[in-house]
């Protein structure tokens, strides 16, 4: 498969792996801590001296360690939210698609209803009613993303059910369960994997957006979105506080998008000839 | 000087050569057939001439049209040439016509774009052209959208679009492949009649079409021209091995195969089967009505009919994929349940199906080994892994594929290879009967021949019974003991192959036989003795469903449905069979 061999894909995969590895190993290498404030070193530009390679913020915290911490949180939120949406979406969509008829209609109208809810109001409401916390962000993002997933999986299941190879299996007498596990599920897998790799950057964006609005991660915890928010306030004097986390965010998003596209090409190649 | 001179044409996609070192000429007014199997570069050649090659392709050599090199021509000058001097008809008229524009306007655009005629003048010319291609009621069809026309009508419109600019050269790329055989004959006759002085380059995989219609022929194999000459001369004494192979592989109506003998045990009996569907908003559609047929052990019965004849519905009901409205299916004397679920494992094991599209019938995520092994997992649970692998190996060998195919995925197979795998899957349980639903329709002539031979071999070895659904009478001739002809859901004629192909009794069967192109310039068939097309099954004609197209139709035919009755070793559903059989 020449998809895996393409240069963009290889670079994206290595870069993403490198960033994630650095995010977890980096804080250990630095003498600083993401909580530790140092009022002697407020708003220092990036320099090798004092080991503040990305500089410091307005409270004198080391920006390198905080950025790495932000990457950890952001990637974690995105991956967990995607898995949440994956599990709910695939189950819901596959059941609707296979059951068909009235059950399918009722289940999908429910999805349509949820689609109609304005997402941001919904999240703000959640944040106001409950305390701001980590778990809530997963719930909020997952609650939106699973709708897309459910629709895609249901559509795919419906068309797979009518495919000739499924009919061939039915004719031979392959059991219902085996048809799902051997014929339907593997053919769903491709599109689901593609969709998940494209959902992750979407979830990263949503998380950053919420944090930027001040609705996401709470201080002193941080995420890339929260760091960008902090950077915007100091934009005039300390541009690095904005540019470094923003660049990191863009880089991660790009890598995920390239990988998602590559997966899609791979999947398409096998579906059609 | 020739109108079109192709010199050392090459078409390359990166390092793959689609066409290599191709040289030929077409003189003004001449008709030339370009023949080859899929992948031989026929269509690429046509695209190169029309200047329609995709950007990924590079063309080398020269294509001289009236002295100008088309490969060097700017796209603006090509635009001026197309339609007026060079025109093309594509295989699928639905894709070639814009679905959102009324057909009259589409034809009018051509005249306007080349400044031939405008406004009222253009309208008249379009109507005139539509009349020439014998589109019924051209005034009304002028404002029809493409989807409102039948396949044959659309191809007439395409032909009108191609010829309205009175081009010097018309390229027709498989113009009738998507059409039923009786309509194909009409379109080909029409093409011959309306092209006047336009030279024709007819691209086809069907040697029969070339034999009857073209003065000269060119044969391509894998991008290269392997033979060219006068059609009659090439058929009489083909020089190149590939041409010989193509001619030998072309199915013919005048030769049957030697088939293994049939036992008199009834295996599958279909008794007054009726299948209907409810079309939302349109009412009930009677796909199959009162159909009886028995398949004996070791016998091949071909079910032949044009699109909409109910062949596929009959198969699906027989297999229990769709419920029957009424009627019975019996297997070895025992009546089978209506739904798939109610059928016993033994019946499912003994009655297998091969689909038309081999690639769609294989799970894209499974390797060939797993695909062939799947029926064994269901019906032979006692087998251990190595015994199963051995059976899969044996089966693969039987269908003529080597072990390297075991680990391949379906998308890595050609159409013929995929169909072999599908047949291996169907035969691995050693069933008693195999239903083939247009199983060779999507394959090239030579591959088709091999697959048919393989099925015959299986029949010789194990007494396999075959129910063979096909629209192609030549295929039916090559494989079947008996032939059942269907028209609009009903049996028209049922007879043994020898009887039916020697003395067809029903006027519809006769017309079908006449419409089949024969790969022999002397005995060339392909006559359009039938007017019109198959009517919509939603609204079938009264009485005998065939009467509106039948040349022998009388009053009784329009009012009373003829029941199938025995006549001279055949079963025929025609009021006038006795009269028509005695020569006047």
Strand content of chain B: 15-25%
CATH topology of the largest domain in chain B: Rossmann fold
Low-confidence stretches of chain A: none
Specify the helix fraction band of chain A. over 70%
Average per-residue pLDDT of chain B, rounded, comes to 88
Number of domains of chain B: 2
Q: Give me the count of strands of chain A.
A: 0
Q: What is the level 1 CATH name of the largest domain in chain B?
A: Alpha Beta
**Number of H/I helices of chain A:** 10
Q: Would you state the CATH class of chain A?
A: Mainly Alpha
- The helix-and-strand class of chain A reads mainly alpha
- Label the CATH architecture of the largest domain in chain B: 3-Layer(aba) Sandwich
The amount of helix of chain B comes to: 25-40%
CATH fourth-tier homologous superfamily of chain A: MetI-like
How many separate structural domains of chain A?
A: 1
Q: What is the global morphology of chain A?
A: elongated
Could you tell me the strand content of chain A as a percent range?
A: under 5%
* Largest interface pair: A-B, 24 and 29 residues
Q: What does this 3D model show about the protein?
A:
The complex is a heterodimer of chains A (273) and B (584). Chain A has a single domain, classed as MetI-like fold (Orthogonal Bundle). Helices cover 76% and strands 0% of the residues of chain A. Chain A has ten helices and no strands. In chain A, helix 3 runs parallel beside helix 6. Chain A is elongated and about 75 Å long. The relative contact order of chain A is 0.15. Chain B folds into two domains: 4-249, 3-Layer(aba) Sandwich (Rossmann fold); 266-496, P-loop containing nucleotide triphosphate hydrolases (Rossmann fold), CATH 3.40.50.300. Chain B has 584 residues and is an alpha/beta fold. The longest helix of chain B is centred in the last third of the chain and has 18 residues, at 445-462. In chain B, the strands form four sheets. In chain B, strands 16-17-18-13-19-20-22-21 form an eight-stranded mixed beta sheet, with helices on both faces. A six-stranded mixed beta sheet of chain B has the order 6-7-8-3-9-10, with helices on both faces. In chain B, strands 2-1-4-5 form a four-stranded antiparallel beta sheet, covered by helices on one side. The A-B interface holds A 163-165, 167-175, 178, 182-183, 186-187, 189-190, 269-273 and B 319, 321, 340, 345, 348-349, 352-353, 355, 357, 359-366, 374-375, 377-379, 409-411, 422, 425, 429.
